[in-house]
Amino acid sequence: MVDVESGITPNGSYEAGDITVLEGLDPVRTRPGMYIGSTGSTGLHHLVWEVVDNAVDEAMAGFCTRIEVTILEDGGCKVLDNGRGIPTGPHPQYPDKSAAELVLTTLHAGGKFGGSGYKVSGGLHGVGVSVVNALSTRLVLEVDRDGKHYMAEFKDGGQITQPLHQSGAAPRGRTGTAVTFWPDGTIFDDVEFRSQTILERLQVMAFLNKGLEIVYKDTRTGREQSVTYKYNGGVVDFVKHLNASKEPLFKKVCTLMGAEEDQEVETALQWNTGYHESIYSFANGISTVEGGMHEEGFKKALTNVINKYARSRGILKDKDDNLTGEDIREGLTAIVSVKLRDPQFEGQTKAKLGNVSIRSLVERSTNEKLAEWIEENPREGNQICQKAVLASRARVAARQARELTRRKSALDGAGLPGKLVDCSSRDARETEIFIVEGNSAGGSAKDARDPSTQAILPIRGKILNVEKARVDKILKNTEIQALVSAIGAGVSDDFDVSKIRYNKVIILADADVDGSHIRTLLLTFFFRQMKEMVEAGHVYAAQPPLYSTMVGKKRVYFLDDAAKDRFMAGHPGHKAEFQRLKGLGEMDFGELKETTMDPTKRSLLQITVEQAAMADEVCSILMGDDVEQRRRFIQSNAKDVRFLDI
């Protein structure tokens, strides 16, 4: 791969010598964001996904039944599968190199282009594992194939230190590939893998590949764990898992399947008594968070089938309007998983599927199979229709509530809530709003802010739990009306992330149980009613410190017990007293500014939705009615900072 970049030099010359040529894997190291999205935590974990996706491709091809992912004590990551093993022979076009070395050192080299190696695949179309090599300080490849064990080793972004060679015999009967890599700390902001992030992805992979066993091990000191995922029910088990934290409308899970040459679809769906639509679509195991043709086909057919059934049973009368797709999908949990030979993804991150042919297959199979299922299960069919009718009535009420909110805004002039202390800048790229619970904390925050770029919105008490309310009730809540008006981009189906008035929306709550509850309520609201804002990375949780102590004449602050313990370990002679900070309202504005609001000193936690299905599950558990389940979840995740804030 040769990447040619043109550019005009500072002195204005533009000659042949000004053309920069990047060879081999150099383009990846020069612009890693083009290949893995970012050099932050998301990009770091993308390396794991690329290697795991290759192993999953072997499983989808029918040659792999077990994948093992291990985080090594020294911070490396090893991915082992029992597939066929990367081919080790010389490549016909490049006889001086083995096929395995080509795959690891050449962009766009792999077994997923010609159609013979894989019928379907989910990796980055052959660039994945070479990108991992390019962004690692060291990578070790091991292949068991044809009764032989092969090894190769690379360093500093793909330089071969040991060409592929036979290093012994393969364990009896074993075939497969092992890739062990150590991310490059000069490329990434942080090279520490997060177990929870990896586990969420692996669990989804196991759900989508019926019967595939995926084992995760963390061997780092103090974090030792081993988790195994295997689901013989596949997507049916996925739906049951997601609805376990909700109240299913009925016990049965509807499964729909369809197939034709080179493509197939498997769908599982079940309604619950809640008000939120939860449809998650996948193409060749890749999460298509922006949907696409497969999701379009499913939604269109679902709306068609339910309306036909409702009219045939007299639930909808001749004078009644049809139920909308939104009405029918209220409380629906569905997994739409398609596999196809040549997926056309829109964008590098594969967020949307563009194959028109898959829309036809999904729509046709849903129309046929769902109509059959609903006729065979009339009790469940009636429950679906009755719930949709109630949702239809609520939709009309919600529209009236929105119109009332808009009219009030127009009458009020700018439409901003009276308690908002706004900033002077109107450039949304540089502004941020702190949502602060309580008047006393709001007063301190007002004094501590930078009035040019920082706005303050105090809210009173705990806002409405949107997990348990339809949108018409949500829009009547005073505190939520203030939030919607201040952010300025609408709400629910009307939300437009391009219109937000602030680049950062920061939740500022106490570091205690009540504060965590308020954060959870607000984050649930944003996730359910302004999801695009969370997905775009605009939502943050401020992290006020829990402790402070004097070091000489300077006061030092500590975010949590772990930070205090690290300090104590490094300063064994420190006997000075630690002060437990009680709350935002008890901090003076100077303390609040120094510890929590000053952009040069504060610690913010960015809220992301990397795994939408898992985030949905967390919201349902934390805000649902099952107290025992919530208690177990909090106890088991108490040490995970992210879950304290989500």
Largest sheet: 8 strands, mixed
Termini separation comes to 43 Å
Outline type: flat
> How much is the average pLDDT?
82
The radius of gyration over CA amounts to 27 Å
Give the class from helix and strand content and strand pairing.
alpha+beta
Side by side, the strands of the main sheet go: 7-6-5-8-4-3-9-10
Q: Output the CATH homologous superfamily of the largest domain.
A: Histidine kinase-like ATPase, C-terminal domain
If classified by CATH, what would the architecture of the largest domain be? 2-Layer Sandwich
Number of strands: 25
What can you see in these coordinates?
The chain is α+β, with helices and mostly antiparallel strands and 646 residues long. 37% of the residues lie in helices and 22% in strands. It contains 21 helices and 25 strands. Strand 22 (547-551) and strand 23 form a beta hairpin. The two termini are 43 Å apart.
